[in-house]
Amino acid sequence: MSSCDKPEIVERGTKKKENEEGEEGEDSGFLGKVKDFIQDIGEKIEETIGFGKPSADVAAIHIPKINLKQADIIVDVLVTNPNPIPIPLIDINYLIESDGRKLISGLIPDAGTIHAHGSETVQIPLCLIYDDIQNTYDDIQPGSIIPYKVKVDLIVDVPVFGRLTLPLEKHGEIPVPYKPDVDIEKIKFEKFSFEETIATLHLKLENKNDFDLGLNALDYEVWLCDVSIGGAELAKTENIKKNGITYIDIPITFRPKDCGSALWDMIRGKGTGYSMKGNIDVDTPFGGMKLPLDKEGGTTKLKKEDDDDDDEKINSLHTSHGSLALYVRKRNVYNVTA
């Protein structure tokens, strides 16, 4: 038997392993070619037709409405579609958090369509309810400014690429507003009669917020013993510093005879309840706000005092919140008898 006729002696395990490796190599080569072919076709289609991945960016954040109850927030997202056909905006997932704590989250389905070869601004409306936030996190106090982060996921469906998620983030600050505290420091009478009395209210306004308030206007009404003695709307410009106090004068005209027993109780030295309600329109670093003025539960009475400067101080009005001085100019002094 020649050497070429001799049988090849190979271990069984080694032969099997070589056969498996050979089969795997064939499969790998075939599948690899198929994948490369599909990828090449996709790239050629993309180059020929012009498909591409859309992009998105947070263009701006607006606070169109803010008051003591809630803050309405609009997130403007600029979405660019480079494709020759419109693409559907399937869902929008959003989250607002502060220092890693969730404030609100939600989903907006079927958010519209982005036109072909164009850019559009998609507005995402959000709403922060302050009571919900403060009930969840008791360390968030009225008057404070809190940091926030807005997270938005835009889910779009693009031919060739399929469903894509475009994640976005934006940081900022938002206030938790608090109404100012109001006190009537004194009332100065310019004219006094039972038919018509003209007076000036000297108000003390305390800003309890961590941001300035730019006063533009206010409206108010004053009651004595549940009887309105008058009110008005007034354009007034004043800057109230954060956590600061300012004083403003506002006019009031009323007829004492319409006050009934309230005025007579006050003249006789008896306590008479008073209250003041209204609103102030202010500018803030976060936009315009309309904040309430509210003072209730005060009591008043008249007390004789000495002369003071150029005005004759007839009486002072003492309240549970302080002393209110009543003045009448010397040229317009009126006697009141019970």
UniProtKB/TrEMBL annotation:
One Gene Ontology biological process: response to desiccation
Record region (Disordered): 1-29
Record's compositionally biased regions (Basic and acidic residues): 1-19
A single Gene Ontology CC term: cytosol
InterPro entries: Lea14-like, LEA_2, WHy-dom
The Water stress and hypersensitive response domain, residue ranges: 56-173, 182-298
Family: Belongs to the LEA type 2 family.
Protein name listed in UniProt: Water stress and hypersensitive response domain-containing protein
Source species of the chain: Ambrosia artemisiifolia (Common ragweed)
